[in-house]
Amino acid sequence: MWSTLQSGSPRKRTQVVAIDLGARMAKGVHIVRKNDGFELLGFATLETPISDKGLTTDVLGEFFKAITQAVADKTKAVVVVLGVGDSMLRQAELPMVPVGDMRLMLKYNSKNYLQQELPDYVFDCQILPGKELPIGDVGKGNTKCRVLVGGARREHLDFLTQAARSASLTLEQVTPSLAALPNAFEMALPEAFNSEVSALVDIGFKNTTISIISGGELALSRVVGIGGDKITSGLSEAMGTSYDEAEGIKIGLPEEVQAPLQSLLMPLGRELRASIDFFEHQADKTVGQIYLSGASARSALVVETLQSELMIPCKLWNPLSFLRMSLPPKQMGEVEQMAPLLGVAVGAAMGTF
User: Fold this and answer.
1) Strand order through the sheet with 314-316
2) In the chain, which stretches have pLDDT less than 70?
3) Could you list the residue range(s) of the whole structural domain that residue 235 is in?
4) Tens digits of per-residue pLDDT, 174-211?
5) What is the Cα–Cα distance from 236 to 234, expressed in whole angstroms?
6) Burial 167-205 (b: 16+ CB within 10 A, else e)
7) What is the CATH number of the domain that holds 346?
8) Are residues 176 and 200 in the same domain?
9) Distances in Å between the alpha carbon of 333 and those of 72, 120, 121?
10) In angstroms, rounded to a whole number, what is the distance separating the alpha carbons of residues 276 and 224?
11) Which of 145, 243, 280, 286 has its CA 20 to 30 A from that of 154?
12) What is the pLDDT of residue 134?
């Protein structure tokens, strides 16, 4: 599992609260390790704080406190997930040196290894298994390796740390969202993760991400600038109704707006198909199954339409299926409906265990 952007080695914990800072809604989960498994003790969704004058550490700290208290009264350790606009995740080839040295190499020469100048970024690396490659004089044992590299601006990480501290919380880890969802997939569907070629498609508010898992490895990640917001706004305009009404119809009564919904999903389908075609051409492998998550994916018509566009079997998956439920009675009745929204937070939490 891939986890952190914080410096040093993360402490293995018995419980943690993970907060997925979505563009519109933040999702929080409280997970504990018990005996040979894991339990979900609580979850919550709150509107992500936004300020025209800029978000302060105090405002964000109060938000962290509110969502943490909503899921766990006494837990002080939190993991925060950064979205695709605030973090990066990609593969690179680096010399086979200690991870600390890899971080320094990327810090001072990111353009050479990532083909992009990323000043004032904090990086973390995870060496992908079985990916050592010879460089230079093979006889001297020189090697390079394939590495999963994550990064975010130091200023932003410091801001998150200060916000958590203002709420008397400890920021244990910061995880890119593109790394978190595959963690949950590995736990929920280990056979598919390790043995199949699958695509995880997460329909967020502003963006949709696609992550292709091949033989237990994150082989490709892409971001498409089409999300649930654009689909709902298009439905609202087509129906001449309010945004909230269009959102409710999209999820609850999609057959009432089948034609405009299918039309709005076509551009997303084309973009996702292009990413899959790129992978299949490069890897000479075929994606056999698409697993959908996110609020919009709860609509059966959305799943059916994307399956028709992509010409690959699509289905909604449950990232909570490996967890034992120890939830309050009210949440027990809501958890099945909320599960497709919680995969990123769950995956980030699992990176701490």
Assistant:
1) 217-224, 208-214, 197-203, 289-293, 314-316
2) 1-12, 51-53, 130-142, 254
3) 190-316
4) 999 999 999 999 999 999 999 999 999 999 999 999 99
5) 5
6) bebebbbbbbbbbbbbbbbbbbbeebbeeebbbbbbbbb
7) 3.30.420.40
8) no
9) 19, 45, 42
10) 12
11) 145
12) 46
